[in-house]
Amino acid sequence: MRSILITGAAGFLGSHLAKDLVSEGQRVIGVDNLSTGKKSNIEDLLNHDNFVFIQADASSPEWLRLDSLSDVGEIYHLASPASPKFYQAAPLETIAINTIGTKHVLELARRTGAKVLYTSTSEAYGDPDVHPQPEHYRGNVNTWGPRACYDEAKRLGEVYCYEYFHRFQVDVKVARLFNTYSAGLRSDDGRVISNLVEQAITGKDLTVYGDGMQTRSFCYADDTIRGLKLMMEKDAASGEIINIGNPSEYTILELAECINQIVGGNCRITFHPLPVDDPKQRRPIIEKAKNLLGWEPVIDLQEGLRRMIQVYRQ
User: Fold this and answer.
1) For residues 314 and 231, what is the distance between their CA atoms, to the nearest angstrom?
2) Sign of CA dihedral 7, 13, 15, 17
3) Using CA atoms in the order 34, 178, 279, 258, what is the torsion angle rounded to 10 degrees?
4) What is the mean pLDDT of residues 166-175?
5) Burial (CB count within 10 angstroms: exposed 0-12, middle 13-18, buried 19+), residue 249
6) What percent of the chain has pLDDT over 90?
7) How distant, in Å, are the alpha carbons of 91, 161, 170, 172, 238 from that of 166?
8) pLDDT at 100 over 80
9) Rg of the chain taking only CA atoms, in angstroms
10) Catalytic entry in 76, 87, 118, 150
11) pLDDT for 108-147, tens place per residue?
């Protein structure tokens, strides 16, 4: 049995994926430098016979020389800060992991014959002037701003994937992930759902930026993980970019009101200046995922929030 490598294995999505694969009897190697991931996320796996953890930075070449990587058959490249709070605090590291780190992963796959799934982002669409967003839309991204270190690095990571697929026949698939959430999201993550849930259950004012009319689409982590696994499995996804996200669209104000209602509190909603380059709207077209993968999300926002809030309360 060949191993499955997950970069960013101690992060939010990486730890979910690692637990899911190990529970299926797969042998998993997790790599993480613990810059934003937490070892506590994979604590249940650390003594498991089918899991090996390597603390290393995937943008550094040293980890590629490890003998334990010689039999890797699948690589999920999830390593990267994903919250503006974290990637704006470490912009050069964010650029490195999505460019140099992606090249390292692709070189490893070229050497071992592994399949690669690169997790890109809906941020590749920037502040879109096409709505909703199909995969062929080229985006409206500001290269000269505080979000560019993430947006543009992810886009360049996609270019690396394109070149390795066409020049070296590396079996690579690119997932553009839209906002993903669940109970595993750090309460100090800085993303809108974790912020609002933490504020609501502690009775604080709910922080909404701008007028709250900007929209997002929120996909529960279980649905996202299922989509990633299907992408890895399906030959039809090779050499493709596929949106993985929930096409249901909500304003941030609607999200805040929904969380407040579920918590049963009477939190006050306060409005604050909108961050620079904050997208006005975001919603995926997922016809490609439906047709190539047979995938679509099944957990709606209300159910996902109830699950998340229950765990956060504990």
Assistant:
1) 34
2) negative
3) -100
4) 98
5) middle
6) 87
7) 29, 9, 8, 10, 11
8) yes
9) 19
10) 150
11) 999 999 999 999 999 999 999 999 999 999 999 999 999 9
Domain boundaries, the chain: 3-179+220-245+284-293, 181-215+248-283+299-313
CATH class, domain 3-179+220-245+284-293, is: alpha beta
Segment 276-292 mean pLDDT: 94
Q: What is the CA 78 to chain-centroid distance, rounded?
A: 7
- Residue found under tokens 């190539």: 292
Instruction: Tell me whether residue 162 is one of the annotated catalytic residues.
Output: no
Please report, for residues 56, 136, 163, 174, the alpha-carbon distance to residue 160 in angstroms, rounded to integers and kept in the order given. Answer: 21, 17, 5, 11
Task: Provide the Cα torsion 16, 18, 23, 28; round to 10°.
Answer: 180
- Here the tokens at position 166 are 């066409």
Q: Between the CA of residue 314 and those of 188, 201, 261, 307, what are the distances in Å?
A: 16, 10, 18, 11
Cα separation, 230 vs 148, in Å, equals: 30
**Arithmetic mean of pLDDT, 242-265:** 94
Write the CATH number of the domain with boundaries 181-215+248-283+299-313. Answer: 3.90.25.10
Residue 187 · residue 252 · CB < 8 Å = no
CA-to-CA separations, 32 to 12, 46, 186, 250, in angstroms, rounded? 12, 13, 16, 33
Pair of tokens at residue 5: 């490598």
Structure tokens at 56: 């290393």
Confidence class for position 187, pLDDT limits 50, 70, 90: low
